[in-house]
């Protein structure tokens, strides 16, 4: 188990810069997710930590030691690849035992640890089979077993769940988190799926265009986004451009179109100063109500339902407020509001965040 | 006609031109050869029609034929080995190179645009007594007399390697190209160095391609008569040269037929063994 530190790391491919100067500290034992859309540099960062790519500039430290010049096979890392990368010509047991053969482990000890790893991933009886005889989810577990059986200093997961279908993905999410918790290994997880990131991580590193946008706990990046990109990438947000009129001890009050004055708690408006500012209004915090409903303690405006996107438990509305179309995601109590109906949309100001304009 | 019946007929309709060609150009002549091999060439030079085992007896008992068959198989085996050792790294390089694969593969195919005979004869201009190499050696003063480099077994093998290397490279390339590169990355991440990762993962997974290339090189090498004819000496005749000799020079079709069927049987056995263990599908991948 070791910490991972990226110091002023840069990766260029020819004239293209995949990772702009970045700093990142991953404490020992943490589960950290690199989250971002494709091409944001998250996989490049992972591959540099792994030793599959050399950084153009900067330093990588694992367990406090510089590893820039240490080849991959000496870094003692467990990597789970997106496509599992199981050796098709070796049995499951031989796949899992592969890393132990390079680690001076006796045969009886290898057998014992392979068995232990297979039961940890809840597949104790498949050792004699070949990878192609297993389902996608099972192959995923074997890939994980192979990566953790060597007791790696750091576990690197490159979009390991993206090849699984939706139900299996959610099961594996819980499973992966359980195993990581049990062995306590420092884990770097790469994904473009925000719900995976929110559900699994101790900390999330949101990346965009080769830059780190924000680092924080899931709750922090979700509730206190520091940029428009983060606000939009983690769930749907409505961004209203306005002006910060007043800062008090507790709030920053923004004047925005459609809703007027919105007092945002200071901890969600840390970087806002007087002058232009943006209000981040999450779609799931914007509630639709019957006209005339009680909106005390909330900020409300009259609206018309434009589009209804029914999703079972929830419904996603597009509502017209004045000249703007806003997105709202609500739980369904009885029946969703029909298209064209006149409603009131309302939100609590403490559910908003503010960004400098 | 029902839909099922139409669908069942369709492959046969599509295959019929090819099947007709294979039937007329391969199986019918082969039957002729089988029939010929039981005829007898008389002293007068005329072929006597009938069922005689004389040609087969001669082909199967004469030590001369047996020795040449063995040396043919040996030359083909050495050629195959050299092709494998030279072709594998080249195929690996092409499969792992980014971007310019198409150009590299085109360069590999380029020699096929020149007749195999011309390519074989080009070695005379290089290795001959007044060839490029000798001229150069004389010019440097390293030798005073030109060295006789041609017309021996090594030059036959050289010519065969020149001819067959692209087949080996293509087959191994196809096999390597199909191997997921992350497998090697996974192996190195688990502690294997690059060489160990190659031996543990890439090499075993590319063996079918290597075997297919090997089979192709061996069969084509063992069946050739042009290379030993152009680049070999009198004692370097290969089995196909005997067939050529019997049929073209001596006009002894019955004996030539028996000899060619003998070679066909030996090589056919080899293909059958290959097919039993590796399957023909891999060979088709390399050719396609």
Description of the structure:
The complex is a heterodimer of chains A (357) and B (288). Chain A has helices at 42-50, 92-97, 107-120, 136-148, 166-183, 194-200, 218-223, 228-233, and strands at residues 4-13, 16-26, 31-35, 57-62, 65-66, 77-80, 154-158, 186-191, 203-208, 211-216, 237-247, 251-256, 260-265, 275-282, 287-290, 299-310, 314-321, 324-331, 342-347, 353-356. By secondary structure, chain A is an alpha+beta fold. Chain A folds into 2 domains: 4-223, 3-Layer(aba) Sandwich (Rossmann fold), CATH 3.40.50.300; 238-356, Nucleic acid-binding proteins (OB fold (Dihydrolipoamide Acetyltransferase, E2P), Beta Barrel). In chain A, the strands form 4 sheets. In chain A, strands 6-7-8-3-9-10 form a 6-stranded mixed beta sheet, with helices on both faces. Chain A has a 5-stranded antiparallel beta sheet with strand order 13-12-11-14-20. In chain A, strands 15-19-16-17-18 form a 5-stranded antiparallel beta sheet, with no helix packed on it. In chain A, α3 packs across α4. The model of chain A has no long low-confidence stretch (mean pLDDT 93). Chain B has a single domain, classed as MetI-like (MetI-like fold, Orthogonal Bundle), CATH 1.10.3720.10. Chain B has 13 helices and 2 strands; from the N terminus they run αββαααααααααααα. Chain B has helices at residues 3-36, 54-61, 63-96, 101-109, 116-127, 132-140, 153-177, 181-189, 194-222, 226-231, 239-249, 253-277, 281-287, and strands spanning 40-41, 47-48. In chain B, α3 packs across α7. The interface between A and B is medium-sized, with 27 and 19 residues.
